[in-house]
Design goal:
eight-stranded antiparallel beta sheet
């Protein structure tokens, strides 16, 4: 095996023209840097006092002194020769020698000095002609200059931690705010939508309850009395006083109107009824919501009125109802006494909407229904039978003028 060191007393070892390390005499490619080195001829001239300066031209190595045997010192380094491309080993990162022939120049970090003038000077060769390998790399984080504060980019390319945190927090804060705003919009929209749905459902329920046609079951027997009010074939009293009160029949309804804050009754002509079932459609078409309309049953005359004693079922435009009983005082004059009311019931439609009234009088028990639902039951045995009358009531505390219409009247016997 050949050695890179010459035998004692022989010629000094060859050195690589690029990196300057000793080389075996029979090797042409440097084992350190891979550069090509021609083998010198045995009889070639050796120039005296050869300077072994570095090929990069930055720092200068010392000269060998003349030897004791004469001017012949150690053989000089062969001149640097250009390496043919075919002899450059593949896969190495060594640059051609010509690029290392430049004087030392400042090196800067690649694009980021974080607003500081920090530049790194290219180091020179040592006294052996070697380029310190560790200086080819940017300084590590442990070797950063004191001018760099903790967190700024160091030689390893680590970015400023504070700035990175700011960049992270910025989008996160914006995202959080956006999510909160979206939640507010969604929740607010949900509440608004629920309110609209509930309001619509409430309106629909109100409309359906007021306009829904009730299912009414009427007796199949022949009625004791009935009238569709197409004309006055039944002989109703149509006496009217313009500006005071009026009675009219036509277009399938009986219309009663009072304009003097009084009660205007219209008695079913020529008949008296004991036990019965009455079916009737009625509606307050004009007047204050406190105005009333309804039916007298089992009514009788007194010395001051042809309806002095009675039971009266009255509805009002605000959806309430009441039951009154007519009695006589010690002088024989009529006294009206409220026995039930004023009570609200959801089955009663408001002013401007029709109500179907059902009254069943059996003995002392009287049942009052509106739109198919039982409103109340009243028991009293004072009156066994009497007249039936329809009425409109323009109460004294309300503005003058109240109008009610009646249609589809039928009075059936009880079986």
């Amino acid at each position: 095996m050949s050695s890179m060191y010459p035998p004692p007393g022989g010629l000094p070892a060859r050195r690589c023209a690029r990196c300057g390390i000793p080389m075996p005499p029979d090797v042409v490619n440097c084992g350190q840097c891979g550069a090509y080195n021609a083998i010198p001829q045995p009889n070639g001239p050796v120039p005296p006092n050869t300077n072994f300066g570095p090929p990069w031209g930055s720092a200068q190595a010392g000269q060998y002194p003349p030897g004791p045997s004469g001017p012949w010192g150690p053989p000089g380094m062969p001149p640097v020769q250009a390496v043919p491309p075919q002899y450059i080993p593949t896969g190495n990162n060594v640059m051609p020698p010509s690029q290392f022939q430049r004087p030392s120049q400042p090196l800067t970090t690649s694009g980021q000095n974080f607003k500081r003038p920090g530049q790194f000077q290219q180091p020179g060769l040592d006294n052996y002609g070697n380029f310190p390998a560790q200086n080819f790399y940017a300084p590590s984080s442990s070797a950063v200059s004191d001018n760099f504060q903790s967190g700024y980019m160091n030689g390893t390319g680590v970015a400023d931690q504070d700035e990175e945190e700011d960049e992270r927090h910025g989008p996160r804060i914006g995202l959080i705010l956006g999510v909160i705003a979206l939640l507010i919009v969604l929740v607010g929209g949900g509440f608004l939508g629920a309110a609209l749905v509930q309001n619509r459902a409430r309106n629909n329920n109100t409309t359906s309850s007021s306009t829904k046609t009730p299912v009414i079951t009427t007796p199949t027997v022949k009625p004791l009395f009935s009238d569709t009010f197409v004309n006055n074939s039944a002989g109703w009293d149509l006496t009217s006083a313009p500006g005071k009160f009026s009675v009219a029949i036509g277009n399938g309804r009986l219309t009663l109107e009072d304009d003097e804050n009084k009660l205007l009754p219209e008695v079913v002509p020529g008949r008296s009824f004991g036990d019965f079932q009455l079916e009737l459609d009625a509606m307050l078409t004009k007047g204050d919501k406190n105005s009333g309309y309804g039916v007298y049953i089992r009514a009788g005359a007194s010395q001051d009125s042809y309806l002095g004693v009675y039971y009266r079922f009255e509805l009002y435009g605000d959806g309430t109802y009441a039951i009154f009983k007519g009695t006589l005082d010690s002088s024989g004059n009529t006294q009206s006494m409220k026995v039930q009311g004023y009570l609200t019931n959801a089955a009663i439609a408001l002013e401007g909407h029709p109500n179907h009234i059902t009254i069943i009088a059996r003995g002392s028990t009287m049942t009052f229904k509106v739109n198919g639902q039982t409103i109340t039951t009243y028991t009293d045995d004072s009156y066994k039978g009497g007249s039936i009358a329809l009425f409109v009531s323009n109460l004294p505390q309300t503005p003058p003028g109240a109008q009610a219409t009646f249609s589809n009247l039928a009075i059936f016997p009880l079986t």
